[in-house]
Every structure is written in C-alpha cells, then in structure tokens.
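hi! just following up on the protien thing from before. the input was this:
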Amino acid sequence: MKKTSLYIALSAAAVFAASCKKDFLQKYPKTEISPDAYFNTAKDLETFANTFYDKDYSYDDTNSDNVSYYSSSGELDALLEGNIDPTTVGKTGWDDWKKLRTYNFLLDYAHRASGDTVGINHNIGVARFFRAKFYIAKLARYSDVTWYSHVMTNVDSALYLPRDPRAKVADSIMADLNYAISNLKPEDNGNRTRVNKWTALALMARFGLFEGTFRKYHSELGLTDKAAPFLNAAVDAAQQLIAGGKFKIYSTGKGAADYRALFSSPTLNGNPEIIQWFDCQQSLSVGNNSHTVLGWSWSVSNSLVESYLMTDGTPFTSQPGYKTKGFVDVFANRDPRLAETVAYPGYSITNDNRLYYAKPNLGGYDQLKFYPRDPALRQGWDANYTGMPMFRYAEVLLNLAEAKAELGSLTQQDVDNTINQLRDRVGMPKLIMGTANGAPDQVMANAYPEVSGANKGVILEIRRERRVELACEGLRLNDLNRWAAAGRIQDAQQGMYVPALGGIDMSGDGIPDIAILASPTDTAEMNTVPLSVRYTISRFYLKDASGKETNYYLDNGRSGRISFTRYRDNPRKFVAPKYFYRPISLQETVLNPNLKQIFGW
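and the predicted 3d structure came back as:
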C-alpha cells in the first residue's frame, strides 16, 4: 500500500511539473488526481517540491573575459559583433517560464495542506526560494520583466501584461527571500543537497550585492539613490549566515589541495564550506560533464592569468617584462590557486610521467579547475562523478566584504574575517586596507575606471580576489555587468605569449614539448629543436598547407601573444547601456504586444 501511494504521489508531481513548451502558462496539468485532492500534507508539498531541483551548477566562465576562446555560438561574441537583435536573439533565457509555473503551482495550492505547519511553511519557502532565483536570472538579463505570482490559465488576461519595473521585481524577489529565510528549516538531514535557511541567506547575500552594485554603477536605471538597502541586505544576510556557525573555509593545512578538493572530490558531504551542492554518483546514474573544461573548446584568458598575485602579494603586472613571460615562467612564484585553475607545467591527467600539453589553438591556458583529477571519476559524457558546489561559504565572505566596502563601512577586522581567510588557506599574504587604499594598483584602476572614493584601492583588490577565488564558477559575466565594466566585456581576450616560432617548453624541463610553426611548408624553425624530439612533438600551424589562416595568430607576426582571427576580423564594440541587457525575441513581442523593448533594443 505504501509503495502504491508513493508511486501515485510521484506520478502526480511529475505530471504537475510538466507543461507544453508553447503554452506552459495557459495549460492546466492533466492527471487523474486533482490538485485539490493531492496537496493535503507537508509530505505532499515536499514530494512536489523535489521536482524543482535540477543540475543548476556551473563549471565555466564562457561568455566572459575569463575565457580566451569559445565557439562561434557564444552569445557575447555575437552581441559585440552586432549580430544580436530581437530577430536573432532566439528564446534562450526567455523559454523557461514553465519552471515558474511549477513554483507558482505549489504556492497556489499549498493552502490546502494541513497538519505539520512548520513542514508546510518550509516547502512554501522552497517554492519561493526557487521563484526568487528564477527572477534573479530574468532581472539580470532583461531588467524590467513581468512578475507572475500565480499560475496563468488560457483565459487569464494577465498573460498579456507589460513588463513590470525593475524596482517592483527586485522588491518581490526580496519578499520571497525574506519569507524563505524566515520559514526554511536550517538543515536538510546534514547532506546540504536541498534548499534550507542557509541556502536562502547565501542567495540573499548574492542578490543584495548584485542589485545594490548594479544600481550604484548604472545611472540609466535612475535607482542610484536606492542602492544602499540592497547592499545592507547583503551584509545582514551574510552576517546571519556567519553567526549561525555552521560553515567555515575548508582548510586542513594542505593549502592548494584544500582548494582543489572543493571542485574535484567524489562527494562534498561534510565539507564545512559547502552550503549547497549537487550530488553526482554512478550508483544514482547521475553524472556531469566537467571533463570538458580541459582543452575541449576554450581556454582561460591571459587576462585572468595576469590577475593572480605573486606569492609575496605583489601584482604579477608589476614584474619587469611580465608581458613577454613564457608559459613556464608565468607560473613561477604565483598564488597557488593559479595552478589549481589552469593546467600548469608538468601536469599529468594520468597522475604519472605522461604529461598534459595545452593546445595553442585554444589559447594555451587550459582550464583545470573542476577537472576530475582521479581517472576513476571521469568515465565519459555525463559520466563524471564529482560533487558540484552550488553555494559555498567563500562567496558569502566575498559578498560581505564587497558590500561593506561599497557602503564605506569596511574595517580591517572585516577584511581579516573575509578576504584574508581565503588567502590564509593557500598561504598568501594578507590584504591590508591602508596599503591597498594608499596606493591602488594602477593596472586594476585602469581596468575599472568606474571605481572611485576613499575605498577605491580595497574595492579593486576585493574584485581581484573575487575573480581569482571564484574563477570558472559561472559568476563572472554578472559581476562585469553589475559593475558596468563595459571595457572588460568588450576586450578581445588572448592566450599565452610565444617568444618565437618553433619549439616551446610546456613542462619546465627545458625540452620543447610542442611546436608552433608558420605553416606545414614553412618549418625552418624546427631546425632549432633537438633531434631527439624534432619528429615526435605535436606541431601546430598558423596557416594550413594552402596558405589559409587557422583560427589564431601571433600578434607580432612570428612571435607574440596568441590572438584569434575572429576578433581581428570582427572588431568588438560595446554599446552602453544597451548591451548590459538582452532584447526579447520578436516572436514574443508579437504574441504579447504589451512587451516593449528597453534601452535601445
């Protein structure tokens, strides 16, 4: 009897969660069990809420300045080349409203449940958490967007509403998160794969910082004077989470290995830094594709590589001749997180003497972070079995530090309790506010000219720390957008520096491991390569045998930094403020004429 009841409950949940992609807002879920009969207990709500969870994690920063090359399908490339408009943008980012319908379905019928009040309110909090997260993504992409608080039907005139103002949407998100924080249980049986109070606080800290800084740096919104309440909300949420005492930076004294464990372990259960994670297990037939980060279709950008400090705490960009350092020298005496993020000289996929050599046609700085280090954990497409972090304590600390710095209330004690905990883990020198503000790094200041004020130097260093600590975790483009960092988005990214055509040492033993040559018919530089490896090393060409250019070139001709012909032949241009947002597909505005484009779209 119990098995039959569970089957009916799960079947009902699955049917309720499904909807036609074309008219998901209008269709009423069809099932033999009506929602009036189904939503009777907290357990019913929980069973339905379990359908909300999916693979909502990220292990790359494609479409941002942290990546040196990605496929021609990248939206950011198309945008900056002028190829995005309402007729070409498609429905990506707009076609997931069926998720909202599912969240609202639970909220519309939750009132029917009775009994366990705490459990009922917890599951309502789960639905409101997911609705808030859904709208945060919409706000980031479209700014003004229609807020739907109930399931729409095919006779509901609300289907044809105009966009709601950003301020209303942001306030509605805050209301959902405040409810979630007040009603979600503080634990999920200790495994942290489900939404709980701490997850909601982490999302509030993230969103408060996002919206507060977006308003501060985007005058086109007319909301600059209303930024502080969101920054204060970020501070309050982060401090509540910290005060809860449930989390801390994962550090066992192993430095870089502790940082690595967050992204390549078979399980994150019990890791004190993880607030929420996604469990990938072979026994559950649930895997991921994290192996694709290494040398498949992108590399990490030189811009990101240059952001990592030297081990003495000084900027890499203050080193003499930093612009022309070769691959091996770039990794010498650097923040240990660099070699955990980028495939370093001497890295072996198989953990033996068979070394990995990056592909110059992708830039040369291949991403290592999230790559399963244990070969037993990577078994093919959708068959990697490493835990995927979704919210971690390190981000909360970074959010707190940045929000307080932007509010002008940051102290050295705050820096020690946030930024310096991250640096301590990997043995990096502490950040000192007085030093940072007294002499801001000029390279960082040039990169972010929008930053000013007494805390300019420390804000710049917090941005550096955020970029380094959270590299390849899918947050970078939203960071650039909220900072109004148009120049960083517009930049054509490059790869490693190549001092000359011919052999290149990629392992640090002084022996060439690959060769970059002008073409298959122009191989004179191979004469400088030792005979012992001349005919066995991998060769890469700037032009093919017919004289046609490949996808990359060296910016000085026969030497220089790896650059991409796509960017040279299609100059990138950022149109502000228009490009901080995306247009709505023309098809959608035809279906609902009340949906109007904004900011020049």
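Residues 117-142 form the longest helix (26 residues).
The two ends are 58 Å apart (CA to CA).
cheers
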